[in-house]
Amino acid sequence: MQTQQLALLIANLAGTFVFALSGALAATRRQLDLFGVLVLAFAAANSGGIARDVLIGAVPPVAISDWRYLAAAVAAGIITFRWSHLIERMQHPVRMFDAAGLALFTVTGAHKALAFGLHPVMAALLGMLTGIGGGIARDLLLADVPMVLRADLYAVAALVGAAVLVLGTLLGLPTVATMSAGAAACFTLRMLAVKRGWHLPIAGRRGAAVGDNTPRR
User: Fold this and answer.
1) CA angle, corner 138, sides to 136 and 142, nearest 5?
2) Which of 7, 9, 192, 193 is the most exposed place for a label (fewest CB within 10 A)?
3) Does 59 map to a domain?
4) Which domain holds residue 148?
């Protein structure tokens, strides 16, 4: 059990680091100073988990009580601030790891919500919130429409992954199996959406549908 918890912690910190990279990179593109880059890095990496923990009463949130989450975010922010030009060249690897982080945070968020006795539907929604909350905070701080509301099946992929975990738990399947299946579903759907340009119908466009590659205005 301790080995499993250690592996989960390492994976969570890795996901935190990658999400922090995305927040710091967005900040450098807007030419923020070092403090702004670090704020965006932490917000992108930890806002979803903090929001979930506050909503279910798991306080203080682990992102605040465990210094390692802050350290991972700060390290990613400093690296991006110093070598942003190198990070820009790693868009495809970063997208892949971002999808992996989204998948992991989604299923662990949903699992934690279920452990606190939430209704399965709400647990799935909180799992999605854990995965997408950081991106929402990052974009709002930059005065942008959150990417999760307009990107290629980002939030939907998180919701699917959380739903798979919740359904598996309700059926009494092993935790490791349900978490693996949920993470795989989220990761696969997200990467397929990125590769093939899948998205939901967009407001103001007639006939828009998943897979519609008509150029956006």
Assistant:
1) 115
2) 7
3) yes
4) 2-196
